[in-house]
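Researcher: We're teaching a course module on how sequence relates to structure. For the next exercise, students receive a sequence and then see the predicted structure as tokens, so they can try to spot secondary structure elements on their own. Here is the exercise chain.
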Amino acid sequence: MSTTGNPTTVLEESPAPIPSALVLPRRSLRGTRRREGVIYGVLILCALFSILVTATILLVLLKETITFFRFPEITLGNFLGSTTWNPDLGQTRSFGIWALVSGTLLITAIAMLIALPLGLISAIYLSEYAQPRTRTILKPILEILAGIPTVVYGFFALTTITPLLQWFAEFGVYNAMSAGIAVGILCLPTVCSLSEDALRAVPRSLRDAAYGLGGTRFDVAIKVVVPAALSGIISAFLLAAARAIGETMIVALAAGSRPRVTIDPRNDVQTMTGYMVQRATGDASNFDLLYYSLYAVAFTLFIITLGLTMVGNVVRRQFREKYE
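Model: And here is the predicted structure for the students to work with:
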């Protein structure tokens, strides 16, 4: 400080230079936008490719199904109104799709009665009760079931589940119960994994508020977390149901090959996918009625799956609006 009363002059030190190794290079804004544009274009192409594949499949099924109904012995009333499916040559030849739809729905119902409650209970345990170490061990083990080939499930149903069922009741070698149980085991990891992800996505604040009001862990899990995650749980249920409806190898090996309308799980039945496996062996001519019947059955299966998806979207949207 100066003794003559002059103001004090403060000398500011210049900052130390930053080493060149720590200086990040400037990114070109134009180059960044160009790369983002390329990524955006690739994503658009992928989406358009998926739509194109779906539309192509639908057009092929529709075209061959129309050809199926052009045969003189085929009528829409017989196809949708009859419960007898007998495609072989003879005077009693009939194409009533409800015989195949009945077997498909019966096995799907049995599978869902097994997969949905067990999968949801397992998801609640993993999300709300299990310790982190336990969850990291049990969840991958459970998801291994989804990676087992379905033909293995078919042989497991035929050689293990069916003999066990025959101890309790008069089940045939081929029956709907055995195939339904195997399909339910196949769908169990889908329900559990997706439902557990939906439960864990519920905000922690909802759980803390419920605990603050005196709720027990069971009350919080059942009355707060499950309703809040109901949209994701419904999505898991619908995906599992679609998987069960479209399952092929298990029902082809364990359900049997007798198309009929029945609700008795002890009987052997034939599903829509099972019929397609039976006929798509190369023996049917490309111009034969049996060949075109494959497309008619496949188109019916497509319509059922599409209807299930559309109904699920409506229900899921309603619950999502309720809990947002």
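Model: If you want an answer key for the exercise: The first helix runs from residue 29 to 69. Residues 11 and 230 are 67 Å apart (CA to CA).
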